[in-house]
């Protein structure tokens, strides 16, 4: 990846932010308080105060739109709806023994947390039901989830100081990194690398997901002050005493101070409302289908391909990927009913999808019916309107049920018109916009 791409990404993001009024927010905690920074304006505001506890960790579920956080000193996992009208209202989800960190599994809809002193990792579903403790180890601190390969990564913080991983049912415990004091863990879903903050020396490090190829990413030059990190694509957000840092790891290693607070920062979370989405990489089909599908979520670009000629759609996907967009497509999925249901749900919950109609006027496959169902379902179940992007190639017919939506014409030389396509994606139909119907 070159600088050129980086600049392009930043530009695309900027254009999105400006043209669509979208906002990226950094949510962070200080003692008893949760605040947000609008990364566009730099405005800082208090979301919740008087929480009567230290909060060392935050995570977000894009589907139900809740921020979850452990209230260590109150022995409870809490949440609040976000974004939402003020005042924000805290709900307690479940009791827990001095919980220190948590992570959301949006696929199976569980929240997993670590308990510092009991050394347990427990879980419950989003409403606090079905609580179960899946494993016990030394004292524990950080936790994160590799949702693709379904591993929980966690750190021990007692007589042993390690990064370990286990399956989501607690089986198959393995040590990934030895002899390291870690308070913050995260996974870069572009490069599929693990990042961690070494608390005692303030160093951000990274390795592959199995612990090989360890590199030092950044020295914060502060000891004992860095707690939480949050990895979003290849950007790492770190709390660092009073400061909040953004570290870009790929392609350039650089660190910026985003904000200096008056109180010590602990947990951090990036809330991403960018509609031009840089999704996790479209991988070769070696991963189980459901985790593969999961990569579409919550980042929303899903390409529904209709027609026999899959080559042009594959090219399109490939080009989007080169442009730092990422996407999933039904091309890689068998039209199995169960998967379709899950996909339908995800697309309904997503912000964006693309319908790609190939050059052949032959789309009598089961995906078409399915796709039309989705469009109907989505428009009916949403407040406002939710539209697909429709691309058609070589004058292919638009199925009758989709005719009410604007379709974008592409000639067969579309690969050379990427800019045009990107421009269209920027000004194309968006959620909340009313359209001809
Ligand atoms: C946020 O910043 C804008 C300027 O970018 C300012 O006009 C606005 O009043 C600020 N809002 C708050 C709540 O501070
Ligand atoms: C735990 O999960 C792993 C991986 O998903 C699976 O192979 C194993 O059979 C499960 N063990 C139990 C006891 O359910
Ligand atoms: C660890 O992961 C790297 C890259 O993901 C891979 O090349 C290597 O073979 C793996 N090593 C082991 C021991 O699994
Ligand atoms: C840490 O110190 C080194 C050497 O003085 C400096 O180059 C680097 O920028 C510092 N890091 C931060 C995050 O301030
Ligand atoms: C694309 O179509 C070809 C020919 O019909 C087929 O062999 C191939 O498996 C398809 N690829 C994907 C990813 O669906
Ligand atoms: C589009 O039509 C042209 C000319 O009819 C043809 O050469 C080309 O292969 C078609 N493109 C695709 C992707 O089918």
UniProtKB/TrEMBL annotation:
Keyword Signal on entry: yes
Signal as UniProt keyword: yes
SUPFAM superfamilies tied to this protein: Toll/Interleukin receptor TIR domain, YWTD domain
Keywords: Signal
Secretion signal span: 1-23
Protein name: TIR domain-containing protein
Organism: Mytilus coruscus (Sea mussel)
């Amino acid at each position: 990846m070159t600088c050129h791409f980086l600049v392009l990404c930043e530009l695309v993001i900027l254009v999105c932010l400006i043209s669509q009024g979208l906002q990226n927010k950094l949510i962070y905690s200080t003692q008893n308080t949760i605040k947000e920074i609008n990364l566009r304006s730099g405005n800082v505001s208090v979301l919740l105060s008087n929480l009567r506890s230290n909060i060392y960790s935050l995570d977000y579920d894009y589907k139900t739109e809740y921020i979850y956080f452990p209230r260590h000193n109150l022995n409870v996992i809490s949440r609040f709806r976000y974004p939402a009208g003020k005042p924000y209202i805290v709900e307690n989800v479940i009791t827990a023994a001095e919980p220190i960190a948590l992570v959301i599994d949006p696929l199976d809809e569980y929240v997993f947390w670590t308990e510092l002193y009991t050394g347990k990792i427990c879980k419950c579903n989003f409403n606090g039901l079905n609580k179960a403790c899946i494993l016990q180890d030394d004292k524990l601190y950080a936790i994160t989830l590799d949702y693709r390969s379904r591993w929980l990564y966690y750190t021990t913080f007692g007589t042993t100081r390690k990064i370990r991983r286990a399956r989501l049912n607690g089986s198959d415990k393995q040590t990934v990194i030895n002899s390291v004091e870690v308070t913050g863990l995260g996974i870069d879903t572009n490069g599929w690398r693990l990042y961690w903050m070494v608390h005692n020396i303030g160093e951000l490090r990274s390795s592959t997901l199995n612990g090989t190829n360890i590199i030092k990413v950044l020295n914060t030059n502060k000891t004992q002050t860095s707690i939480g990190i949050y990895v979003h694509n290849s950007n790492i957000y770190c709390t660092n005493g009073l400061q909040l840092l953004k570290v870009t790891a790929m392609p350039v290693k650089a660190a910026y101070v985003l904000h200096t607070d008056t109180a010590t920062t602990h947990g951090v979370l990036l809330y991403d409302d960018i509609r031009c989405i840089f999704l996790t990489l479209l991988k070769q089909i070696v991963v189980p289908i459901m985790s593969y599908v999961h990569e579409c979520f919550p980042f929303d670009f899903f390409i529904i391909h209709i027609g026999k000629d899959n080559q042009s759609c594959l090219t399109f996907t490939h080009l989007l990927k080169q442009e730092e967009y990422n996407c999933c497509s039904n091309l890689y999925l068998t039209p199995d009913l169960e998967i379709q249901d899950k996909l339908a749900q995800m697309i309904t919950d997503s912000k964006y999808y693309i319908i790609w109609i190939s050059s052949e006027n032959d789309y009598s496959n089961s995906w078409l019916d399915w796709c039309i169902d989705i469009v109907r379902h989505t428009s009916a179940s949403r407040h406002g309107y939710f539209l697909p992007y429709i691309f058609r190639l070589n004058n292919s017919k638009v199925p009758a049920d989709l005719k009410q939506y604007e379709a974008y014409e592409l000639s067969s030389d579309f690969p050379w018109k990427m800019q045009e396509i990107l421009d269209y994606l920027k000004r194309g139909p968006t959620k909340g916009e009313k359209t001809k119907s």
